[in-house]
Amino acid sequence: MEPPKTVTVIGAGSMGSGFVVQFLRSGLDVTLVDHRDSNLERARDRAQSAAAFLAERDLAEIDPAAVETDVTYTTDRAAAVEDVDIVLETISEELDAKQELFGALDDEADSDAVLASNTSGLPITKIADGASEAADRIIGCHWWYPPYLLRPVEVIAGAETSDRTVDRLRAFLETVDRDPVTVDRDVPGFVWNRVQHAVIRECLHIVETGIASAEDVNRAIRDGYATRTAAIGPLETVDIAGLELFQTSANDIYPDLTDRDEANPLYDRRIGEGRTGIEAGTGFFEYDRDPDEITGRRDERVASIRQALRTLEDDDATETE
């Protein structure tokens, strides 16, 4: 089975510009679609910056100038999806908007194109309700951000998604040097966001109830739990420590963990005060730097972790030869 070679990305936000870089470095024909030219212009600038970053750090063989010369940017969605192998949407996380989009793609895209959604947690079966005739070709394809640095990608079949569509998407992801993670049940949040939100829910509960400050919680997770998890996964951690120990700890701790089923009130409080995140200069913390500088610093740290892990993986491979 030939993996898809031409891809159209719909949505020129941060993820869309990241897709441009990852697909371009993999030698694919890439088109980026948005309903505003201004969004496309900003996405082009972000993609060039990301490509330059990868080239400077020797993380990829990519010419930043190719972001300008080798990618098509357009507001004409129908023309952009007419004859491509895969369409990947990364528009707003609103079910109605995604259903409307896939309903349109049912008519506009090639009848054999894979229609993929980068939704971070909306069930694929519900998204496909907007395009019942194409439901066998609609599939979840959830990337970690930034997509040009993190390798895992969740693959989620809806109730009507065909095995052929799953196989084609997995082949595509392997072609662009990504690691497909199979999600066997189409549940809200899939794997990554179920775990991420479980952690954040407890972090906010700890802050809200005065167990520890936001600064200390952030530091404990970033410099402790997350650092170790970059080396070994959570279930490996259980194996190393011993199942009996974790079972005992779970019975002691679980009754005191939050089981809140709505967003923590800390969100509403800060949003109401205009403290919406780095674009506003404040959220849970204060920021005095440009948002692009902040995300650039994050990329530097993630890249350093990836490079260190890659070196260890290469050393392990050499030892086993």
TrEMBL record:
One of its GO terms (biological process) is fatty acid beta-oxidation. Residues 6-186 form the 3-hydroxyacyl-CoA dehydrogenase NAD binding domain. Keywords: Oxidoreductase. One of its GO terms (molecular function) is NAD+ binding. It holds the Pfam family 3HCDH. Transmembrane segments: none annotated. The record marks H142 as: Important for catalytic activity. Residues 189-287 form the 3-hydroxyacyl-CoA dehydrogenase C-terminal domain. PANTHER family: 3-HYDROXYACYL-COA DEHYDROGENASE FAMILY PROTEIN, 3-HYDROXYBUTYRYL-COA DEHYDROGENASE. Belongs to the 3-hydroxyacyl-CoA dehydrogenase family. This is 3-hydroxybutyryl-CoA dehydrogenase.
